[in-house]
Amino acid sequence: MSAHLTHPVQAPADTATSVALRPTRSAAASSRTALGALIRRDLTVLRKNFGEFVGRTIMQPLLLVFVFLYVFPAIGQGVGGGGGRAGESDFATVLVPGVVAISIMFQGIQSVAIQLSQEFGFTREIEDRVQAPCPIWLVALARVLSGATQALISALIVFPIAAVVHAPGVTAHLSVHWWVVVTLIPLSCVAMTSLGLVLGTTFEPRNIGLMFGFVVLPLVFLGGTYYQWTRLGAVHVGGFHWLQVLVLVNPLIYIAEGMRAGLTDASHMSLVVIYPVLTGFCALFLALGLRNFRRRVLS
């Protein structure tokens, strides 16, 4: 009986020894695991709602290309129509990369800014996210990276549509330069989702309409979607090319010009300028967004 009574006394010691010998994960490893889990969660939601995502992604670019490159030339009002089908084809060559650029911008902003406005709003879902075993800034970074993935997918969906939806006789002269495409599109996606992080943590949910009216629309119309930056030199006052200088504060102009460099042989802004400036915008937006995110979470 005494032997039977001594057995429970030894078990806790053995358990304590095994627990002490069990390796513990570092904080960095835990953070990486949490980051991966947050991104997988967002991508799982995307997979389950992929049809809605595709519809939301292609609607605006499809209508834009359909009206400008199919309807207008068909009714004799094509942009660039003064040069006949050749002029309309030149405009198509300029517009297709611009459409890819705005699809990246819209999807990048929507996937982050709109979602954050909801999570910081009535649902307060953000409180569940920040309970993940990782720093607060990593939760925001996970949203940026998952949003960048969605922006990348939207570019892959929109490009073939924009490349083929043209009126008879209108042809976009495309020439894919893969090293530019492979490097610039991911950088553009991260830059636009970082901008979405800034906007989503700056605008209150009730003011999200102001974000589109006062930020998104000016970005689109002054972002080189419909024209080349190199052609803006024609707009000047007293020899000062004011519009060509003004649009340089718009990050979309660098994405649109970069897409023209990667998808066409049309004239474009120098890549020596595009890459470092776009990287600078990405770092700036990410720093501001992470700061704002932390303030909103802790307030």
Quick description:
This is Transport permease protein. This protein is mainly α.
Keywords:
299 residues, mainly alpha, 74% helix, 0% strand, disordered N terminus, transmembrane helix, membrane
Strand content: under 5%
**Averaged pLDDT, please?**
83
Q: Could you state the order of secondary-structure elements as H and E?
A: HHHHHHHHHHH
Q: How many β-strands, per DSSP? A: 0
Helix count, DSSP H or I runs of 4 or more residues: 11
Structural class: mainly alpha
User: Radius of gyration, rounded?
Assistant: 25 Å
Regions with little confidence, pLDDT below 50 for 5+ residues:
1-11, 15-21
Distance between the termini: 62 Å
Shape: globular
Number of domains: 1
Percent of residues in helical segments?
over 70%
The main β sheet shows up as:
none
Keywords: Antibiotic resistance, Cell membrane, Membrane, Transmembrane, Transmembrane helix, Transport
Protein name: Transport permease protein
Transmembrane segments: 57-75, 95-116, 136-164, 176-198, 210-229, 235-256, 268-290
Subcellular location: Cell membrane; Membrane
